[in-house]
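Supplementary Methods, section 5.1.

A reviewer requested that the exact input to the structure prediction be made available. We therefore reproduce it here, unchanged from the version used in the analyses.
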Amino acid sequence: WWGYDLMHEYLQSGRFAWCAPSLGQGGSTCSFTVVDGKPPLDWFGVNFYSRPVISPFLTPGRKPWQVISDLGYPIDPQGIHEVLLRCSAYGVPLYVTETGVSINSQRHRQYMIDSYVKEILRAMAEGVDVRGLYYWTLLDNFEWNGGYSIKFGLYEWSPWPWGSDRRKRTAADTLAAFYRELPPTVPSARKFARHADLGYPQRSPAPHSIRWWATNCLLLYFAGLEWLAGLAARLLQ
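The structure derived from this sequence is encoded token-by-token as follows.
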């Protein structure tokens, strides 16, 4: 009953079947089938930032070679390539309608843009019909879960009273260079992708911050206390 499986099946066959077994007697279900078969679809938008990796502390983590963002998820170039390959099964043009990263290191922000764009081009070279890419975002913005502390922008910006001058980050030049290099039409862009150098280095991630270690140690500490309390309660029964 995972969301991806539901929509993947629905968009290919017109059949939708959802079940949440934890909700009451026998669970909660919803199912229907589109009368005319597959639902009408002109194009499909892919929003991809990362895919989750769970640490031994049961908190967001990363694989050894991955760079971790300020929001705790890893930069995962291979992930966007795999998602585009899967979504190509819908048989319609694809747009990467949202991707980006909030990270303090500009070297790693540049790495994210370089590696993600090259993986998108790799998918195009393999025959996936990708028509466009939209980066999130041009300016630092207000995020509901972190306010102005989350920095996705290609341009740095902070609201009054911290300052309102826009300052271009070096990663903006990385993305602009790709746009300047790409041909103006989709067929020529596909041909370009087939002959482009799509390699990129795997950067060594910066070590975890003191805040990361402190947070995870506290979580482990309280989890241990909860376990000990439960054990004591069972022993005293």
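Strands lie at 15-20, 28-33, 44-47, 94-99, 130-135, 155-156, 167-168. These observations are discussed further in the main text.
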